[in-house]
Amino acid sequence: MTDFGKVVVVACAGMDKPLGSVARVSAFKVVEELRPKQAQLVCIPPLMAGAVSYSELVKSLHVITLDGCIERCATKLVAKSGGKIMARIYLPDITKKHNLLPESASHIGSNGEKLAELIAQEVALLVDRFAKEV
Questions:
Q1: How far apart are CA 85 and CA 78, in angstroms?
Q2: In this predicted structure, what is the pLDDT of residue 11?
Q3: Which CATH architecture has domain 7-124?
């Protein structure tokens, strides 16, 4: 499949943040299991480094960002790169909604896995919606 009809997912890269780990697990579930043909992962470090292939993707395709903390790095970086952000998922709000917290950044535990699955399902529905609009 070409990039046409795909949606980009950009997840928090906070290695020291439990919700950063949940964001990354959620993103992998979407792009590898739930919507592998419709969703594509864009990694924050190459985007921040100005890798043309990544910056072109966020400029040309619809983007969903997953932010793990108040800094909202994924959203800020995509916006700074000229990306077309269609939806922003703020994980602290999701944790409150479902009363689930991950154990730690290196081991999210069963509650973190449940949270990642709920977020991935929400993102997959957004991918379905935005892939039709491309």
A1: 7
A2: 96
A3: 3-Layer(aba) Sandwich (3.40)
